[in-house]
Amino acid sequence: MARIVDLRSDTITRPSPEMRRAIYEAEVGDDVFGDDPTVIRLQERVAEILGKEAALFVPSGTMANQIAMLCHTSPGDEVYLEAGSHVFNFESGAVAMIAGVILHIIEGRNGAYTAEQVAERLRPGDHHFAPSRLIWVENSANRAGGTIFPQSEIIKLKALSEKHGLSIHLDGARIWNVAAATEMSEAELAAPFDSVNVCLSKGLGAPIGSLIAGSKELINEAHRFRKRLGGGMRQVGIIAAAGLYAIEHNRTRLIEDHIRAKKLAEAINNQEAFTVDLDNADTNIIVFDTTPSGLSGPDVNNRLKKHGVLGTSFSGTRVRLVTHLDINDSDIEYVIEVFNKTQIW
Ligand SMILES: Cc1ncc(COP(=O)(O)O)c(C=O)c1O
């Protein structure tokens, strides 16, 4: 069979034999009754890593995001977030349907925005306006290319949230990558936030699962919303065991994904046909622009696919490639070779 290098997402990884063993050996109970010891261990461990009082295991990042929205807002409230946010672009309009909030979109840079940009958008208390309620940060920012939201700006956003009585949430689906890239701990990165969600199935190699973390009170609320959304699961320790394995074994190696992504980004940027913003190639996601080639993102992806290289395209001229646990140095060499076959562009 021809070689396939699948760079569509860091979610495509398959559990390793060791992770499967952890799944096989997991001690389980009915988690809807709060009886699953493996889930309890995972929740405690993630809360500890994030420096929060408590955490709750949920099936997906999307459900974690929706629960966070529900915990912090009432229908009709306004939420401030960046234009590329996952919760705005890729969750099928769930926030409108489930939390019923209004999203105030900020055109930022590299997935980040400033406290000033939020401050100038805050609504007066007058009854004409939606109540300003929540500041939403995504770090790393997926659609922007795995970019890192500057922590100095997050601290300013926190001060702004306190001044105006708003909540502040972190979609930290890939916070592990930010910690690996910045040498700040996950707890330091999460400290300014009232709540954080993290994914086990991106980068860390677990098959399923996300958590939301925050105060005990917030997690108690989150528990009720999880039930309402049908996210209460039974002997789910078999999945939590994979998550625990992933957290203990696959966090420190994320830097390898970043090094490979950087190498590939440089090679793509060396092509006349494409451009990559190398200053923002921070983590494991490469987004390159196909404009100089005259080809659309889907055209470029189709040509790459003929050579066994799989990517995704976000919009007209942007292609995304993601490095992950199941990609090694030889895969990256192969992808660079494919890009260097000038006859394909
Ligand atoms: C930043 C971010 N948040 C949330 C999600 C949603 O996660 P899930 O696919 O588990 O629903 C994703 C998925 O890629 C993501 O990139």
Folded structure, characterized:
- The protein has about 350 residues and is an alpha/beta fold.
- The protein has helices at about 15-25, 35-50, 60-70, 85-90, 95, 115-120, 140-145, 150-165, 175-180, 185-190, 215-230, 235-250, 255-270, 295-305, 330-340, and strands at about 5, 55-60, 80, 100-105, 130-140, 165-170, 195-200, 210-215, 275, 285-290, 310, 310-315, 320.
- The strands form three sheets. Strands 2-8-7-6-5-3-4 form a seven-stranded mixed sheet, with helices on both faces.
- Helix 13 runs parallel beside helix 15 (about 330-340).
- It starts with a strand and ends in a 5-residue tail after the last helix.
- The structure holds pyridoxal-5'-phosphate (PLP).
- The site of pyridoxal-5'-phosphate has 12 residues, from helix 3.
- Pyridoxal-5'-phosphate binds near residues 86, 171, 199 and 201.
Sum up the structure in keywords.
binds pyridoxal-5'-phosphate, Aspartate Aminotransferase, domain 1, 2 domains, Aspartate Aminotransferase, domain 2, 17% strand, 345 residues, alpha/beta, seven-stranded mixed beta sheet, globular, 15 helices
Q: Would you tell me which CATH topology of the largest domain applies? A: Aspartate Aminotransferase, domain 2
Radius of gyration computed on alpha carbons: 20 Å
Percentage of residues assigned to helices: 40-55%
Which strand-content bin applies to the residues?
A: 15-25%
Order of helices and strands: EHHEHEHHEHEHHEHHEEHHHEEHEEEH
Q: What are the distinct ligands in this entry?
A: pyridoxal-5'-phosphate
By oligomeric state, this entry counts as single chain
Specify the biggest β-sheet: 7 strands, mixed
Tally of individual helices: 15
The figure for the number of domains is 2
Total DSSP E strands: 13
**Helix/strand-derived class?**
alpha/beta
N-to-C span:
24 Å
Low-confidence stretches: none
**Order of adjacent strands in the largest pleated sheet:** 2-8-7-6-5-3-4
CATH superfamily (homologous) name of the largest domain: Type I PLP-dependent aspartate aminotransferase-like (Major domain)
Q: What is the average of the pLDDT values? A: 96
